[in-house]
UniProtKB/TrEMBL annotation:
Keywords: Biotin biosynthesis, Iron, Metal-binding. Required for the activity of the biotin synthase BioB. This is Biotin synthase auxiliary protein. Belongs to the BsaP family. Coiled coil: none annotated. It comes from the Bacteria. Pfam families: BsaP (PF26519). Residues 64-87 form the Biotin synthase auxiliary protein C-terminal domain. Its cofactor is iron-sulfur cluster.
Length: 91
């Protein structure tokens, strides 16, 4: 009995020819709905002016803890951390 040489000799599946392109879903920061390419989501006018903070995480769609102060806001996702109005240039 012969033993194959190396880990590649043990693999019976053909190598993948497609690159690993996992699609990452993005979420609307004001509604929490999944953003669908080609479909326009309604954005509140206050959000367009930078007056309304995001309420949902854009990476996972979870509801965030939001603190509003006179000079800006910050929002915290339990999985992805804190973002604030300084990041968007609104402070």
């Amino acid at each position: 009995m012969t033993i194959p040489d190396g880990p590649s000799a043990l693999s019976t599946a053909p190598p993948s020819t497609t690159p690993n392109t996992a699609a990452v879903a993005l979420y609307n920061p004001f509604t929490g709905a999944v953003i669908t390419p080609g479909v326009d989501d309604a954005v509140p006018q206050a959000a367009l002016l930078g007056l309304e903070p995001p309420r949902y995480c854009t990476e996972c769609g979870r509801r965030m803890v939001v603190q509003i102060s006179p000079d800006g806001w910050w929002a915290k996702c339990s999985r992805h951390g804190v973002s604030d109005s300084r990041q968007g240039g609104h402070r």
